[in-house]
Amino acid sequence: MWLIDLIGGIAEFWCSWRLYVCGGIAVGIAVALHNGFPDQAWVWFVSVPTAIIGIGLGFWWQIRADDRA
């Protein structure tokens, strides 16, 4: 029974719109940087942490929303 609850919790978490909003914005910023400054090495040092932070903020936002509910 605990396995079904675990799978349900993970599925509910990955279906969260908050995760995709933050992830989409972060990935959009990263893509815009790569399109605006092609073949620049510094873009990778800016875009990768931006994408990771954006996805992390999506996780944090969802966890806080679940705690309030």
Give the oligomeric state: single chain
Our measurement of the CA-to-CA distance between the termini, rounded to an integer number of angstroms, reads 23 Å
Quickly count the helices: 3
Strand content: under 5%
β-strand number:
0
Description:
There is one protein chain. With 69 residues, the protein is an all-alpha fold. It has one domain. The chain has helices at residues 2-14, 17-36, 41-68. The radius of gyration is 16 Å and the shape is elongated. The model has no long low-confidence stretch (mean pLDDT 85).
Task: Offer a quick outline of the entry.
The protein is mostly helical and 69 residues long. It has one domain. Helix content is 88%, strand content 0%.
Give keywords.
mainly alpha, 69 residues, elongated
Question: How would the blueprint of this fold be written?
Answer:
Blueprint: H1 2-14, H2 17-36, H3 41-68
Helix pairs in contact: 2-3
